[in-house]
Design brief:
Helix content of chain B: 55-70%
Helix content of chain A: 25-40%
Strand order of the largest sheet of chain A: 2-4-5-7-6
Low-confidence stretches of chain A: 145-155
Mean pLDDT of chain A: 79
Shape of chain A: elongated
Oligomer: heterodimer
Chain lengths: 155, 650
């Protein structure tokens, strides 16, 4: 049976809508693939899983006593750890208020060939009791158990 | 005792909501007038009890009842009283109670102001809202009860409110945003009631529109306040981060924006009715999704506070029930409310449809970017984050198209317009926009820049098309009479559209011309930015009510002449021993000077953040204009016309 013109028109509109949506989803997925930052734990980085010279995220705890500052600029170096492996982080700029030794942080930046992670952004959280979920998980994985500092506040 | 009263009142409010969710709805099907009539008293009842419950929690804060766990974790006897009151919504449990409180107020408002709605319709709307209230009250009582006590012995002192939240921004931002979020439930309830009814007529749309406009206005203002708060309080001078929590409020805003336009078409022309219903469902679903994202802690966010996955699960179930149920109903009933009206391609309808499609696509794009890390993680693809470049890359082109379509749609007429006439009307706005747009960066900074030229062109385009439309509307009456006979809705629309231009302008200029310096400054050192010289003169110690503070003294000279002193602070709050940055800002319409202190370095030097932000205020000014625009539109006489007394008494 031949389709009546009204149905045909409806089908056409529907198909073009679908095509449009498909195109947009495709474009979006492409844009996503270009702009996502993979997360790596210090153990991943030590195991050589993280790509070099590509923007990634890394997270862990700031090792106690590891923060060193330059005396004439805002350069700072510290060690990020999941208590199994360490990675040195270089950063220049102002650290967030809740950045402290023994706190969980997430840094964005690039891993250099010499194994130093050069961060262009360091994030600590709004809430002193909050741990970034990635960091909690990374530490749990490195130890096969609970994270040493519990992640939940008594809110 | 007071917390127990609050707890009890919350339980009673839940019972009344259950009655509200079930009885009137049942009545509309069995035809029992008494059940239908019960809707309004039940609506008032649950609102009153919830208000009592909320007041009790506030009293527990004001009187420092630290035997209540929630008070003990979020307040302190040294906390100034205005922050004790706002600390009620400073954390999860209380903010949820605020959410439900807003919902119950919306329910009461509908029951009061929608008296002339047919009783069956009103009963169904209130019942649907009652059902939503049940879900969230259960959520509060079962997973996040703020009235829980530490017994037998309570804490003698509270842990204090997170210092970031001890601020005017926290007093105003969450309630405004929640008013918007929750207000979308009204449009949702209207949509569900219409689907149950099987017909959407002009009266229905006229009823639904002002509610949606009010909710949209609050949502807009809430987002603006959030952005402004983050800007001055987080101490890093950014105003939008494409963070999941921000996106959570932005997605419902985009869809709600589409909704208010689609409602306009449906009311004026009887078109897109199914689409309008779908948008109403989607807008509220996205606001539930936003609540889920913020409250579950599944996403890493700069705004994330400690959260509990079990609570996330509860919201997810609520979300699935609401979205699943309403979409199922939509699929079953939507075809029965179809409309038949014709319009040609060159018509305002087409461009408003375009506006809707673009806005919905923008919402989808933001949704994909926000949920992508979750999805990828769920399928074992590793942990990722999606950064601002993605959002900017896909979002900006959509908005440019949207603004272009806006101008054309404004000048096109309903039904159809001759292409000759349309080109005639569009010619001069286009020309002026191009000329002024291209010359703007030269005039402002002495050299060409594509992004600010584009923004300026878009703003001029909005102004010119609005102007042309205005001229056309009053051409027969002359200015004085013409301006007076235009309705407030029209002025609201103009203001909101111009607001978009103002925001776009601010965004482009501040993004391109801002000068951000993070440097080490020893006392006596000077930094020059544009015409301003900043001299760090050292620090002094200050004691606040519940904090101690190191205050920096920065002298600002303008063109070599003394201009002002700015005093950024680094505070340490006693109770939590938490550090906080208080930025010092010298605001002006043309530029902000923004100074924040980083950390102390050797020999009295400090890490200083000195930012010069041209036109950053325009971003929020534009948002405020949109919000006021919505307010004006609601003021329109059309929506305040009451039906004769006999039906309203029913």
């Amino acid at each position: 049976m031949a389709m009546n013109p009204k149905r045909k028109q409806k089908l056409l509109i529907l198909l073009s809508l679908l095509a449009g949506v498909g195109l947009i989803v495709g474009l979006v997925l492409y844009a996503l693939s270009q702009n996502i930052n993979l997360f790596f734990s210090p153990s991943d980085i030590a195991a050589g899983k993280a790509p070099q010279e590509q923007r990634i995220r890394a997270g862990g705890m700031v090792r106690e006593g590891s923060v060193e500052r330059a005396s004439d600029s805002l350069k700072v170096r510290f060690v990020m750890t999941d208590y199994a492996h360490d990675v040195s982080v270089d950063y220049e700029g102002i650290l967030p208020d809740l950045f402290r030794e023994g706190q969980g942080i997430v840094a964005q930046g690039r891993l250099q060939a010499n194994g130093i992670f050069v961060a262009d952004e360091v994030l600590a959280k709004h809430d002193e009791n909050y741990m970034p979920p990635e960091v909690t998980e990374a530490i749990e994985q490195a130890h096969g158990g609970q994270a040493p500092t519990a992640a939940k506040s008594g809110e | 005792m007071i917390p127990e009263i609050g707890h009890l009142a919350l339980i009673l409010a839940l019972c009344l909501s259950v009655a509200l969710g079930v009885l009137p709805m049942l009545g509309t099907y069995t035809g029992q007038a008494r059940l239908i009539m019960a809707a309004r008293p039940l609506a008032i009842g649950q609102g009153v009890f919830l208000s009592i419950s909320y007041i009790c929690l506030t009293l527990a804060f004001v009187y420092d009842d630290f035997t209540v766990q929630y008070v003990a974790s979020n307040s302190n006897s040294a906390l100034p009283v205005q922050y004790k009151i706002s600390a009620v919504w400073g954390s999860h449990e209380g903010s949820l109670l605020l959410w439900v409180l807003m919902l119950s107020w919306w329910i009461m408002a509908v029951s009061q102001f929608a008296k002339s709605l047919p009783p069956i319709m009103l009963a169904r709307v209130l019942s649907v809202m009652g059902l939503i209230a049940i879900g969230f009250m259960l959520f509060t009582l079962l997973t996040s009860n703020p009235f829980w006590r530490y017994l037998p012995e309570g804490a003698s002192e509270g842990a204090d409110l997170n210092p970031l939240l001890q601020d005017f921004g926290l007093i105003v931002h969450p309630p405004t945003l929640y008013m918007g979020y929750v207000g979308l439930s009204v449009a949702f309830a209207f949509a569900i009631a219409a689907l149950l009814d099987g017909k959407i007529d002009a009266a229905w749309l006229r009823w639904s529109r002002p509610w949606t406009l009010v909710a949209w206005g609050f949502l807009t203002l809430g987002i603006v306040l959030g952005s402004w708060w983050a800007y001055y309080e987080l101490g890093w001078g950014g105003w939008w981060f494409w963070d999941p929590v921000e996106n959570a409020s932005f997605m419902p805003w985009l869809v709600a924006t589409a909704l208010i336009h689609s409602l306009a078409v449906s009311e004026k022309r009887g078109l897109f009715k199914n689409w309008t219903i779908l948008l109403a469902i989607l807008a509220f679903s996205l606001s539930l999704l936003g609540t889920f994202l913020v409250r579950s802690g599944v996403l890493t966010s700069v705004h994330a506070f400690a959260a509990d996955p079990e609570r996330g699960f509860f919201v997810l179930v609520l979300l699935a029930l609401t979205v699943g149920g309403s979409l199922l109903l939509y699929a079953l009933r939507a075809t029965t409310v179809a409309s038949r009206t014709v319009y040609s391609f060159w018509s305002r309808e087409t461009f408003l449809l375009g506006n809707n499609v673009l806005l919905v696509i923008a919402a989808i794009v933001v949704l994909l970017g926000t949920l992508y890390p979750l999805l990828l993680d769920a399928f074992g693809g590793g942990k990722v984050s999606v950064g601002p470049p993605y959002f900017n890359a896909v979002f900006v082109p959509l908005m440019v198209l949207l603004i272009i379509a806006l101008g054309i749609g404004l000048l096109a007429k309903w039904k159809s317009i001759e292409t000759n006439e349309l080109t005639q009307l569009l010619r001069s706005p286009l020309l002026v926009a191009l000329v002024l747009g291209v010359s703007f960066p030269f005039a402002y900074a002495g050299e060409f820049n594509a992004s600010t030229a584009l923004a300026a062109a878009l703003m001029v385009w909005l102004i010119m098309t609005t102007w042309t439309d205005l001229k056309r509307r009053i051409r027969h009456q002359g200015w004085q009479r013409g301006l007076r006979q235009l309705n407030p809705g029209y002025y609201g629309m103009m203001l909101a559209h111009l607001g978009i231009g103002v925001s776009v302008m601010g965004i482009a200029v501040v993004s391109h011309y801002e000068a951000n310096h993070d440097i080490r400054m020893a006392p006596g050192e000077t930094l020059q930015i544009e015409q301003y010289a900043f001299t760090f003169e050292g620090t002094r110690d200050i004691t606040g009510p519940n904090y101690v503070s190191v205050q920096g003294v920065v002298k600002v000279d303008e063109d070599g002449e003394f201009y002002t002193y700015l005093h950024p602070e680094k505070r340490t709050y006693n109770a939590r021993n938490q550090m906080m940055t208080e930025a010092a800002i010298d605001p002006a319409l043309g530029r902000d000077i923004y100074i924040a202190m980083g950390e102390p370095l050797e020999q009295g030097a400090w890490a200083m953040r000195i930012h010069f932000k041209p036109m950053v205020r325009w971003i929020w000014l534009g948002g405020v204009m949109m919000s006021i625009g919505a307010g004006l539109a609601v003021w329109d006489k059309r929506y305040r016309r009451r039906r004769p007394a006999k039906t309203s008494a029913a």
